[in-house]
Automatic annotation (TrEMBL), chains A, B:
Keyword annotations: Membrane, Transmembrane, Transmembrane helix
Source organism per UniProt: Photobacterium atrarenae
CDD domains: cyt_P460_Ne-like (cd20751)
Pfam families recorded: Cytochrome_P460
Membrane spanning residue stretches: 9-37
Domain Cytochrome P460: 72-205
Coiled-coil residue windows: none
Protein name: Cytochrome P460 family protein
């Protein structure tokens, strides 16, 4: 139950809609379930590399600072979920590509252990659907960058967050994105959220073939 | 005209179809046009880092050796064109996601100069469309890795290839991919190819927002 608290508000900010719908929670699960569930067994006491090298920094108020120079675009790409408008009339909740990245240190740890270390950062950059018709056929081609979100796993900094993951939304507008993003506060959520999140663990992890293929397979 | 020679056979191998169709050439252009056109002004004499650090290796027969441990998945991701079957009945020529990566050294050079250095490697890994229906809506979600292709720019190794780019297809089957891939030999192509390739330069570069955003903007 606790797991849904931050995820719910995270989605509220994205959707400007209430928490508790299967749709919104499931989308969140699709983006981050693989992270949450695979990291659930890591405790601060046993996690390796606990903040040894932070991929991101926070300001004095605890806001997440945007990595300089779009650094995440040189991190490890893990997948691009897409639910376009034309398949979800009249309007998809998330009509853009979501290019999802993980910081390289966390990826290396994940390859080795199958678990996400403290300090893992997952960044999701939103990309508009650009062209939908090319000589190669009808389809979807990435247009422009239109938003930035992130989640950070840090047991020391977020001891009360589910799995120690905290969620941040920088912008749902084109770059330049704001310099910092506030932590999305925890909030209550109904059982529908929980059910969707729990039962779709396996389903949603298959959106990230890079992680699935690398998990615990050594370096 | 010369530009189409290698691209034609490269596509032939992929499509098992003849060269000369707008479709096949345009698809090729979509994958690699950004590379070809932006690199066209680089000559072996002026390019920096000419093979100073090769991102890939070749065997004694000149075959491209597959990077170890799926190393390209830790390179810089640049985009994922998608032309799914359901939008291209009865069968899309390329129904899968194409996750496209560039080696980090070439990306750094491209950011600095807006041009691709000698030794640039672009790798395209094919990913099946997995789920098309999730709680978040109808859409496209990456399934499994199902193929690997590459192009390498190297004026010394490929002096006669257009722009010094050579094309390789490792596999259109799931991993493990073959250890090596042969150079796709040059072949003739008709003027329709040329026209499609030329006029879609601008159009196809917009499939790679990461490159477009970084081009020549410094480090």
């Amino acid at each position: 139950m606790k797991t849904q608290k931050s995820s719910a508000l995270f989605l509220d900010a994205m959707l400007s809609a209430i928490c508790g719908t299967m749709l919104s929670t499931a989308l969140f699960a699709g983006l981050f379930t693989v992270v949450y569930f695979t990291s659930a067994t890591i405790t601060p006491a046993t996690a390796k590399g606990d903040n040894a090298k932070e991929a991101v920094e926070f300001d004095a108020q605890g806001n997440l600072i945007q990595p300089d120079n779009f650094a995440w675009r040189e991190w490890v790409y893990i997948g691009s979920p897409l639910t376009p408008n034309d398949l979800n009339p009249p309007q998809a909740s998330f009509p853009e590509f979501h290019n999802v990245y993980i910081n390289p240190e966390a990826y290396a740890h994940y390859k080795q252990t199958g678990k996400f270390p403290q300090g893992t950062v997952i960044i999701k950059e939103l990309v508009s659907v650009g062209s939908t018709q090319a000589s190669s056929g009808k389809g979807y081609f990435q247009g422009d960058f239109i938003g930035l979100e992130a989640t950070v796993k840090d047991a020391k900094r977020f001891p009360d967050e589910p799995g120690n993951w905290a969620y941040f939304t920088f912008s749902h507008e084109p770059a330049p994105y704001p310099r910092t993003a506030k932590l999305q506060p925890a909030a209550s959520c109904n059982m529908a959220c929980h059910q969707a999140l729990a039962e779709d663990d396996w389903v949603f992890t298959q959106y990230y073939p890079v992680l699935r293929d690398a998990k615990g397979k050594g370096m």
